[in-house]
Structures are given as C-alpha cells and as structure tokens.
Design goal:
Layout lengths: L3 E6 L3 H19 L3 E5 L4 H13 L5 E5 L1 H11 L6 E5 L5 H6 L6 H13 L3 E9 L2 E3 L2 E5 H11 L6 H12 L5 E7 L3 E13 L22 E6 L3 H7 L14 E4 L3 E5 L4 E4 L2 E5 L4 E11 L2
Parallel strand pairs: 1-2, 1-3, 3-4
Antiparallel strand pairs: 5-6, 5-15, 7-9, 7-13, 8-9, 8-12, 9-10, 10-11, 12-15, 13-14
Pfam families: DAGK_cat, YegS_C
Organism: Streptomyces alfalfae
Cofactor: Mg(2+)
Length: about 300
Amino acid sequence: MTSEITLFVNTTAGRGRGAQAAQPAASALRARGFSVRTVIGEDAPDALRRAREAVAAGTGALIAVGGDGTAGVALQAVAGTRTPLGVVAVGTGNDFARALGLPVRDPAAAGEAVAEALKGAHVRDVDLGRVGGTWFGTVLASGFDSRVNDRGNRMRWPAGRLKYDLAILAELAAFRPVPYRITLDGGDVHEVEAMLVAVGNGTSYGGGMRICADADMTDGLLDVTVVGDCGRATLLRVFPRVYTGTHLDHPKVTVHRPARVEPAAPGITGYADGKPLGALPLTAECVPGAVRVLAP
C-alpha cells in the first residue's frame, strides 16, 4: 500500500465542520508517517471525478471528510476496487460511520482511528446496496421517511437529530398510507398499505434512527422494514422508538431479509444515504463485500 493518502473533503458539511475537520485528520495521518493529499471538488460531479482519479492513480486510501453525503460520493469511487475507504464523520447524520463503529464529530479521534487501521492493516470488507449504477451504504428510504428526509434536507436549522424530529412532526400533518407492491428476490410479492418501506444495508438514517436495527453489513442481505397502515397517533408513538430499534416489535412493523427488493408505490421518491435516487419503482440489491473499509 502506498503511503500517500487522499482526504476527500466536503467543506460545507455540518455547517462548515468539514473544512475545520480536515486539518486534525490530516495531522493524525502525517504523525503516523503518511503523505496526505487533499481533494476538494467544485460540486458533486467534480468531486466524484477527482475522487475517481485519486483511486485510479493508486492512492493508499480515500478518506471521506464530511457527512453521509460525502461518504456516499466516496463510495461511488471506491466500490468494487481494492482501495480502502476511511470516514471522518462531521456531518448532520453520520449514519455510515455509526454503522462501522467509527467516531462521530470528533475529527482528531477519527483521524487517529484511520491512521491506526492503516498502520495495523485493519481493513475489512462490508456489503453495499446498489440501485442501478448507484451504491449506498446506509438505508434506502421511501414513503413517510423519504418525505421527512426531503424536508430535513431543506431545513437550515436546527442541526443534527432535532432537525429530523421537527421534520417528522411537520410531515405527520399531511401524510397518508400508500399502496406498495414489494417484490422480494424476484418472485415473492407483497401488496400492502404502508407508511414507509426502508431498505437497509446499514442500521440507521437521519442521525441515529435505527429503522433497520438488525441489519448486518456482512450477511449478504438487505433488511426491509415495512411500517404498515397506521394512524397519526400510532405513528407518532411508534416512530420515536426507531432511536432504540424497539419499533421492530410493533405489530404494524414487518421485516424481510432478501438479497434483492423492488418497492413500487405511486408518487414516492426513494432516498439513499440522504440523496434522492428517483421515483419508485426502484430495484435495490445487496452486493457482498463491495467495499474495503478502515474500521474496527
């Protein structure tokens, strides 16, 4: 492995924390003897182009400095290659880093963890989800949760988990159950009225909402959480339980574990790693061991 490491930085992540986090992360790596090169794109397409160029040039690792959006762009560059990915999580949600057991909003500690992993060759392969040509590491959201995600992304205040709590309350006023057709592994079809269908490679979204609490990033399967037809009062009681994962025991919640799933519903947009993928139907598949990560 080459000693040159590439920091892939989103300077706007976490209301500017991305730019501030680059220096302590780089310092931790340089202190361990690595040469650090920083990549900052003018926009998302330019950032992805630069990240891919770094991977193609043989960088020893690509380190995403930012939030889940930054990690998501980095995944497009490293998935399917042998270049390891590290994460210095300083964004709003940071759910990919949480799923990997990495420090959150502590760039010095995250930089130390990456440096320690590189020095000790603590690299492991984990699964990714894929929709068409797009990779995702956490959760594909559709329904009530994707509407919440959309609203939360538009909100400039507050930051972190509270932003999504407020977005939940705002969306509750208007959302109604949606008729879904869910096809599992190409043949097992479920037609249900549901508030949401979440497809998890990782366990959480929205800054720690453990919607797919039992998801395992090494089992070659996706966890599909279906929250069925329920009134606002029930949803208001059940949805906060996603922070502990105890919602999975509720009678209105069903979990499936396929390798491939196609959720279809009218007027619903799918979001993965916090970014819109497009209108349903979408076909998501689990790709085992798709990315090497620098994580415990």
